[in-house]
Amino acid sequence: MTFNMKKLVIILHLCFVFPGCATRYKQMTKNDGYKDHQIGNGRYYIQFVGNIYTSDIKTYQMFLKRCAEITINNNYKYFEIVDKEVIEKNNINRVTGTTYSNNKITTNLYSGENQFTPSIQKTTHKHIIEGVISLYNETDKPLNAYEAKNIINQ
Questions:
Q1: pTM as predicted
Q2: Which residues are CB-neighbours of 106 under 8 A, at least 6 positions away?
Q3: Is 11 helix (H, G, I), strand (E, B) or coil?
Q4: Contact, 44 vs 37, CB < 8 A?
Q5: Is residue 77 part of a domain?
């Protein structure tokens, strides 16, 4: 096997082993994705939730993609975001220490023969974008409207 072929095999292997931890563009499941519903004539509520590996920029891009899809699926060309909220949800995960570990900690406040592992605290961030859009065609579009096909083609 040549050097380039070895590289290709390694890259392909990594793609299958780590298919991507970031949120995939999909309908809402337990932890991430989009959800939406109509709230009026030509008005929709849309929410996109990224998981802890999805950046705020990527979350916003997927939010815009869903807005564009709804616009096109309803035979409109443009949409305007009339209300938007960006939420960062922080979760604090704490793993409690345990005795009978191989890790021994000695401090001024503690002395003794018991061995233990201290508690570990990790904060994770989840990006959520929710908003309301209004749909328009060429004749009635506002100046700050997005053209849906341009968003889809990005």
A1: 0.67
A2: none
A3: helix
A4: yes
A5: yes
Instruction: Specify if 6 maps to a domain.
Output: no
| pLDDT (0 to 100) of residue 51 | 83
Tens digit of pLDDT for each residue in 20-55?
A: 555 677 778 777 899 999 999 999 999 999 888 888
Q: What are phi and psi of 65, to 5 degrees?
A: -60, -40
| For range 10-20, the mean pLDDT | 45
- Residue whose structure tokens are 């009635």: 140
- Report the C-alpha gap between 135 and 118 in whole angstroms: 54
Cβ-proximal residues to 21 (8 Å cutoff; 6+ apart), any chain: 51, 53
Residue 15 in domain = no
- Whether 38 and 49 have beta carbons less than 8 Å apart is answered as no
